[in-house]
Specification:
The chain is of the alpha+beta class. Helices cover about 20% and strands about 35% of the residues. Strands 24, 25, 26, 27, 28, 29, 30, 31, 32 and 33 form a ten-stranded mixed β-sheet that branches. It has a six-stranded mixed β-sheet with strand order 9-8-7-10-11-12, with helices on both faces.
Amino acid sequence: MWITAAVGLVWCVAVGAQQPPRTQPTFKSAVEVVSVDVTVIDGSGRPVQDLRANDFALTVDGESRTIASAKFIPLNNPERRAAATPEDYTSNVEGMPGRLIAIVVDRGSIAPVRSKNVFTAAAGFVDRLQPADRVGVFSLPEGPNVEFTTAHETVKAVLQHLDGQATRAPTPKAIGIAEALEFERGNRMAIDETMDRECGGAALNGAGAAATGMSEQATCRRQVQDDAATVAAATHARARQTVNGLLGLLERFGSSETPKTIVLISDGLVIDGERALLDGLARALASAHTTIYAITPEPSDVDASQIRAPQDLARERVVRETGLKLLTHLAGGELFRIISDPDASFARLGSELSGYYLLGFEPAPGDRDAKSHRISVTVLRHAVEVRSRTQFSVESATATDPERAIAELLRSPATATGLPFLITSYAFQDPGSSKIRLLVALEVDPADARGKLALGLVARQMDGTTAATFYQPSIETPAGLNTSKRSYFATLLLTPGPYLLKAAMVDEAGHRGSVERPVRAYMTRMGRFRATQLMIGGDEQHGATPNSIAPTVSGSVRGQLHTYMELFADGPPGFDRTNVTIEIVPAGADTIVDRATAALEATGTDPLVRAAAASVPLRLLPEGEYVARAIVAVDGRRVGTMTRRFHLERGGQ
């Protein structure tokens, strides 16, 4: 049977051409405008949805730019639910991907116990998100963390068990953060006021005790000074810890233009004297296209670590909130204060996140220089509020550092669509080991059909651990290729289990594409056999020769359907009285419209391994959706079935 050499072909990287898939997306690899995401809400926090491009005004570094388009992107549409279920192949341009929402808990700022209701409300917020939304939980300064996932139950469980961990060494004097900062600034009036309050009662008992009284007062004043310095130092350290944690998260996001949201739960961010920290954070927010919303728990008048509460509690709250307000302003978000009902704050947040505008503006020559630029967006309508970041940066479309670009795409949780492609996978047993060889097949339609492409793959376990990687810095187009469609094949060696596969591609012009696909890297039990997945291909697949088969990526085939799978017997009698039948049925039906018997042939010297290969003529069948079923039977009794959906295209022979 001529298909039995299939595995020999696909274990190495190959390049080829295919016919367009049945649901070919609209490929637009070159983007002449710069995209900016903007939220416009009414007084109730609901997104305004009927704005046009001429309703917006946009400036870059104070100079006006022409807005070419304004598209409202709804994010709570029930149609988005379909995106949560992967098909036989995955595209980085088809369908609406889920939102990327990082819930960042600044545990170092939150006192234990008192904010448990906030974490419970956060879990309820996750419960109301769309199934396709990917959510992560990241704790500062340290775990627990949950990587971005659509497994919302896992995220909710972590949130419901979180607690604050803020600690403060007890100080004899009731020195608040606001007062400590005044000491640091050298505000003589504020310092004297605090000193008089804390030390004004030091005894001066009679003429003979004057010296002793002065000594007690001096000791008290030194204690106040020391306490103020301790409080200020701890406050600055906590702010740096929070900002550095956010910077690390933004670095992981990469420079993808996919909008991302951080929900920061924090008891405060004091940035007095630390404005330089926020300058770097603003640039990182612009590069990562990330918005930050902050939720601050209801303030508490009690601090168990302190003998007495600070005197001016209102002033303390203002100091704690100032940094959060500035942060959310830079990030195009908002600060929500929880007064009594945390669910109300999260409901308002959910409303604001339910849709945004994607503005496309025509950049000036210097806008695409990867540097940070000031941006301002206004709306020519009354009674609405605009949320947008204050800075943006866009890399040059011709910037080409393939290895760095691939690494960034694979690290980022976002999907890049500048270079659209399709991806699918097939799991096979690795000969001579218990591991799985995951065959990854990709189809791309680059802007330059003759240009080189860089390809990178990473398979991660469900906890985010990297299991395997692949990188090809330069794949050239083969001579004689007469179509722009190009196919690539690569393999990853994996321990059996579930993985999240991410693929990234970059062309010579700097266009980038990436996509994620959940994969199952394991064999399927069928009675006394373990079976690989069913691989399919058609006559038009590049590389289909009398000794090989290249798998289809999109599932589209013409002429004949070629199928291939492998069976591994547990032991003798091996394959006695075993047969494999390939059945073709219309999708959604059970009527067999064609069938063929697969030949069982040895793949090497191992007597317990057989390849089951077959070709099914499809010339008499109408174009449409079908399912190929490989039926494995022993003594006429079915022991297992492996299926693969495909689309038959009319016109092929």
